[in-house]
Amino acid sequence: MNLQEPIAVTGPGGRLGRAIVESLAERGMAVIRAERPHYDLDDATAAGRLIETHHPRTVIHAAAWTDVEGCAAQPDLAMRRNGTAVQELAEVCVAADATLVLISTNEVFDGQRDDGRGYAEDDPPGPVNPYGATKLSGEQAARAAYSRDDGAGRLWIIRTAWLFGPPGNDFPSKIIAAADRLASGEDLRVVSDEVGSPSYTIDLAPALLDLVVAAPAGTYHLVGGGVASRFEVAREVIASCRPAVRIAPISRSEFPRTSTAPAWAVLDTGRARSFGISTRAWPAALSSYLGQLCPASAPT
């Protein structure tokens, strides 16, 4: 399909939403920024107002409550923002004959694969935390809404994972901040048995738009190239930004969290690649980002 204008992007100030808005602007496309206070995931009337006021032909829903620990602490609020809000948006989009591109997550899977393969789009989901469960609920609600009136041809669900990029407050930024808080002689301890595909939003956004144009409606996985553990990513960040800091691997059991993260967070992107859509390998993408995040003048 061709992306039909005008295009509304929810969460345009977030990491991926911001990159999508910039990529659309580079293509000269008309963008509606659906953001608070006019578009709020906590407001049951927000989706209807967005459609009635702006009449978008395509909605890219990048807004979500992505605070995994917050979702674990307040699962009802997480369901409101990641599940119910998607249902409301999907239903008004269907009624308006608008296309919906829904951004989802690797955390709809349980992370227990041990065969070295990434999760494919048709593998059975099994979220292990409230964030993943509520994102899966959003997926299911969107499919249910678009299954009516032969609307399935206007719904794309794109799962991604381990996002990093502007405006910061991402994993690389947090690693640098943690390193700067260390006491003299203390090691930076990072989990080594949680594995995924780091995804640079600056690469991901244009690939996502290309995928929607090139591929028929459906569910797709799109992440950065290659796989890495949290420790391996952190090691690259420290080597580039704080080389004097020592880093040590630990297990997930040594890093207590409110929520449970999937141990194997890898997604198979073969379906997207079959349409010629891929992204850079994560080390090259991370290197590009770190050149901006920690210039040579950063303290070591």
Describe it.
With 300 residues, this protein is α/β, with parallel strands linked by helices. It has helices at residues 15-26, 46-54, 68-73, 75-95, 130-147, 171-181, 201-214, 230-241, 270-273, 282-293, and strands at 7-10, 31-34, 58-61, 99-105, 155-160, 163-164, 188-191, 195-196, 199-200, 218-221, 228-229, 247-250, 264-265. It has a six-stranded parallel sheet with strand order 2-1-3-4-5-10, with helices on both faces. Strands 11-8-13 form a three-stranded mixed sheet. A two-stranded parallel ribbon has the order 6-9.
Give the SSE map.
Blueprint lengths: L6 E4 L4 H12 L4 E4 L11 H9 L3 E4 L6 H6 L1 H21 L3 E7 L24 H18 L7 E6 L2 E2 L6 H11 L6 E4 L3 E2 L2 E2 H14 L3 E4 L6 E2 H12 L5 E4 L13 E2 L4 H4 L8 H12 L7
How many discrete domains?
Answer: 2
Here the CATH topology of the largest domain equals Rossmann fold
Strand residue content: 15-25%
Look at the structure and name the CATH superfamily of the largest domain: NAD(P)-binding Rossmann-like Domain
Sheet with the most strands, sense and barrel status: 6 strands, parallel
Shape from CA axes?
A: globular
Task: Specify the helix fraction band.
Answer: 25-40%
Mean model confidence by pLDDT: 95
Could you list the spans in which at least 5 consecutive residues all have pLDDT below 50? Answer: none
Number of strands: 13
The run of helices and strands is EHEHEHHEHEEHEEEHEEHEEHH
Gyration radius (Cα, Å) is: 19 Å
Structural class call reads alpha/beta
Strand order of the largest sheet: 2-1-3-4-5-10
N-to-C span: 49 Å
* The CATH top-level class label of the largest domain: Alpha Beta
Question: Which architecture of the largest domain per CATH?
Answer: 3-Layer(aba) Sandwich
Q: Helical segment tally?
A: 10
